[in-house]
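Checklist before submission:
- one chain only
- standard amino acids only
- sequence pasted in full

Submission:
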Amino acid sequence: MEISIQKKLTDLWNLQKIDTHLDKLRSLLGELPMEVADLEDSIVGLETRVKHIEEEIAGVDGEISDKRNSIKDFNRNIEKYDEQLNNIKNSREFEAIEKEKEIAGLEILQAEKKIRELGKLLDIKKELLDKTSEDLENRRKDLEFKQSELAEIEKENEEEIQKHNADREKAESSLDDRLKRAYNRIRENMRNGIAVAPILRGSCGGCFSKIPPQRHSDIRAHIRIIDCEHCGRLLVDQSITGLEAVSEVKEEKTTRRKIRLTTKAE
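Returned file contents:
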């Protein structure tokens, strides 16, 4: 059995109303989901940085340890050279050993200088690690607070959101695959999430562009599904939405109220 255009438009409008209500419920969360996501990304970055700094500190510690070991080796060599000086046979051997002692002494001085430099670098790295670790801990506390706040708001609206999600599934299942894809594609491309726009005062309720009379007439006739020439939203008339009729009633009441006030004033 072929579904009428009016039924398709009604189903599309019902789905749009449900999605609009869900959007409003989600808007209660404000910027919290984005803030939580940003904090999670920040924490991952800080954890990586902490790990990197710790690796650098381990590398500097290792280099300092190597230099200290080399100093021990050079001192042992100097002791060995001193023993050899007791058994020298000529001045040539004496000069050679003294030269080796001098070189070992210079190596020790150079290693000690390098240890001092590495020690300063180590202090800087440890200070940076403390600062980064502190930032990381603060971010974790912020995340815990934001997640708690987000969970509380979600819990308050959980039942209503679940109900609307169930209604949405039912409403979406009434659409054929082509219409469903078109609706979801248009909705994703619209900042306000409106894919099906009502006609209000002869204009598109999404972008507020004026609708040509002939196009307006075709929309009212429900000959086919028609989109807005300007924004691409699917258009539905007041026989589907009932919005313009409601608007006209409100305007009439306002006009009557103004007349009564004017009469009283006279």
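Reviewer check: The chain has two domains: 5-22+176-265, 31-172.
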